[in-house]
Amino acid sequence: MSSARHGSWKTAFRSLYYQGAQEPEDPQLEPGKFALLVIDVQNYFLLRPEFDTLDAAGRALYEAWTPFHERMHGTVIPNIQRLLERFRHDGREVVHARIACHTGDGRDRSLVQRLPGWNNILLPKDHWESQIVAEVAPLPDEIVVTKTTDSAVTGSNLRLILNNLGISYVIGCGIFTDQCVSSTVRTLADEGFRVLLVEDACAAASDSLHRHELEILNMIYCHVMSTEELIGYLP
């Protein structure tokens, strides 16, 4: 047994609901029955304005988002790359999901993607901003689903694709932990898929939002573990 399997994932990220609950069993990842799902790691979300062009309010917002960008470039993207390398080397299924609309004005977007505020995202499918970042870009034979909702299951034919592939376990990563990742994990669970969420390959706007959402999801909608712990279970 790999030493990674002796990590803390079985007792970490527990909410009040699961304090003292029995530890989960080791996941059984059978070849051909699990896939990696990379969620919304797109150019738009990694864009940053020029600091010198901002007013005081803009600079304050810039600083507030700095920890997210540092986590993305220092932790999340490198860990997603590590997962991609392993899955590709082993010939395992890799699926990418991205937010994008099919119309130029975004009239096909779901309500949650056109409400006033930060979630009002207009990403036409062919624009540069809607593309997956180069560091984790899909290879030619990897599946990419385009979604007009937060959940990659509700907003695309992902459920059908996973069923056609014979997938029962989905390993999830990407952004944002408390929004599209969470929505996707919940609907995957509702559709009968087992989900492993790789916590150090995900990010939210802040670390507190990230950790709080992991506690909400863990033990009911998914099991949360690190990249190293997940790799320890790969056949």
Task: Please provide the count of β strands.
Answer: 6
Residue share in helix = 25-40%
Overall outline: globular
Low confidence ranges: 1-6
| Structural Rg | 18 Å
Largest sheet: 6 strands, parallel
Which sequence of SSEs, written as H and E, runs from N to C?
EHEEHEHEHEH
Tags for this model:
Rossmann fold; disordered N terminus; 235 residues; six-stranded parallel sheet; 31% helix
Please describe what this structure looks like.
The termini are close together. The model is unreliable at 1-6 (pLDDT under 50). This protein has a single domain, classed as Isochorismatase-like (Rossmann fold). Helix content is 31%, strand content 16%. Strands 3-2-1-4-5-6 form a six-stranded parallel β-sheet. It is globular, with a radius of gyration of 18 Å. The protein has five helices and six strands. The protein is of the alpha/beta class and 235 residues long. It has helices at 56-90, 158-165, 177-190, 207-217, 227-231; strands spanning 34-39, 93-99, 143-147, 169-175, 194-203, 223-225.
In short:
By secondary structure, the protein is of the alpha/beta class.
List the helices and strands and how they pair.
Layout: E1 34-39, H1 56-90, E2 93-99, E3 143-147, H2 158-165, E4 169-175, H3 177-190, E5 194-203, H4 207-217, E6 223-225, H5 227-231
Parallel strand pairs: 1-2, 1-4, 2-3, 4-5, 5-6
Helix pairs in contact: 3-4
